[in-house]
Structure formats: C-alpha cells, structure tokens
C-alpha cells in the first residue's frame, strides 16, 4: 500500500504541466501587451514629452521584467518538479536552464519582484502630478521596501546557512 501511495505522489507531479502551459500562454499575453505598448510608443514618439517617453520606456521595462520572471518560473518549476530537461538536447539551451534550484529560484523571484516593484514605483513618481495620490505612492514605497527587506533577510539566512555548512564540513587545508 505504501508503494502505491508513493507512486501516486510521484506521478502527481505531472499535474503541474497544465500550470506551466498556462504560464506560457501568460507569457504570450505579456508579449502582446509589450508589442501594443511598443507600437504606441513608436507611433506617438514625436508627440510625447520627455516625461511621457520615460513612462513609456518604464512600461516596456516592467513588461520585460515580468516576462523574464515568468520564464524563470516555467523553466525552474518544470525542471525541479516535473522532469529534468536534457541540456545536451538538440538545441543550445541557456546555461542557467538546468542549474536553477529552489534556492536560486527564490533569489531570482525576490530580485525580479523587487525590480518590478521599483519600476512601478518609479512610474508612479513620474505620474505623481497627474494620477497618483500621495497615499498610493506611500503604499508603493512600503511594498518596495518589504520586497527589499525580504530579499535582504533571505540573503542573510543563506549566508548563515553557508557559514553553518562550512563549520560542519571545513575545507581541507
């Protein structure tokens, strides 16, 4: 009975595949948004003020960071949960493709979220006179600081874990 339960648990990881396929659809949705924003930026470039051009560029950066985050989650999640991806396959895979474990994924996710939050805050600062209230800006700053604090705490925890491993297994002198 125990072996059957273990087999069911191991096979159940394949239930994650539709989630990753859904994220691929989301990636193409982001691509469509990016192309729409890019088209608007290019076709209206001559009428934009410097301020508007910066906000448009920040929107493109924001979409790019979000798309990169989705790609990282797709590859790392599939590789770590569902099945190993053969790096010696017929294509030239990116070097990081099969080396991002959950610890690395956690760091990349926090860094990406902090960057996205920072870009969003910068866009809000740029639109402060037009549409963003001081209260909204306050919460954007708080959210960004929470992401940065979380990333810092995670880095400190990783540093302590590495130190503990070194103390347990010191390198040969």
TrEMBL record:
The keyword Cell membrane applies. It is a multi-pass membrane protein. The chain crosses the membrane at residues 12-34, 54-75, 109-126, 138-161. Keywords: Cell membrane, Membrane, Transmembrane, Transmembrane helix. It is found in: Cell membrane. InterPro entries: UPF0114 (IPR005134), UPF0114_bac (IPR020761). It holds the Pfam family UPF0114. Its main location: membrane. Belongs to the UPF0114 family. HAMAP family: UPF0114. This is UPF0114 protein Rmf_13100.
